[in-house]
Amino acid sequence: MIVQQQDTYRHKGLREKLITLLQEKGIKDMAVLEAMRNVPRHFFLDPAFDKIAYEDRAFPIGEGQTISQPFTVAYQSELLKIQKLDKVLEIGTGSVYQATILSEMGAKVFTIERQKKLYDKTMKHYPFKSKYLHLKFFYGDGYKGLPTYAPFDKMIVTAAAPYIPEALIEQLKPGGLLVIPVGEEGKQRMLRITKQEDGNIQEEAFDYFSFVPMLEGKKN
Ligand code: SAH
Questions:
Q1: Whether 68 is catalytic
Q2: Most buried pick, 57, 68, 106, 204, via CB within 10 A?
Q3: Burial environment of residue 168 by CB neighbours within 10 A (0 to 12, 13 to 18, 19 or more)
Q4: What is the CATH number of domain 58-209?
Q5: Which 3 state secondary structure label does DSSP give 107?
Q6: Would you kindly state where each structural domain of the chain is located, as residue ranges?
């Protein structure tokens, strides 16, 4: 993530094309599209990727991790049905792009990263610290959620989960939603879990994706 980059007319034009592509691929939520139009994705990437930052692809961000593909970010954000001031927990901060999109949509975002190096990089370079005052960063293991700040209206997991962590369900408000890709390495199914008012769980299944794995424990 690079601090001093410029958002030129060329970048804005490429972003506009990406928004059109996302609509062609089926994204309908105007608030999601507007947020992705407003947030410069190239700010979250190494300058070497400047020319291709608006391709609908994932890119490496160091430490073996990736920034999610724009379509995936849009897809998960849409499934979350974000309302302004929703309290959202994200597992897998990575480049902070997804967390920034949710913040731009008006959510209060709590994001957790298990890799100290990525967390430290974020703390040092995040370009919008003074813009999104409701965005909070945590170094920890997402399998445990964030009990101190629970319960949450919404949760999003941006790494491939082998199963649905029980702690996340526990920390979800009644009526809350959890969007999580579940499955083996290489292929996961996007699930949306609704915690009903009576505490029961309802599960909806969507398309297949490929995320980096959600790993247990913190890494120094
Ligand atoms: N949302 C990110 C996607 C990053 S890739 C973005 O927009 O760029 C997934 C991230 O999840 C990686 O940074 C990885 O280190 C992190 N991760 C994997 N398992 C985790 C866990 N148990 N807790 C917290 N973060 C985890």
A1: yes
A2: 68
A3: buried
A4: 3.40.50.150
A5: coil
A6: 58-209
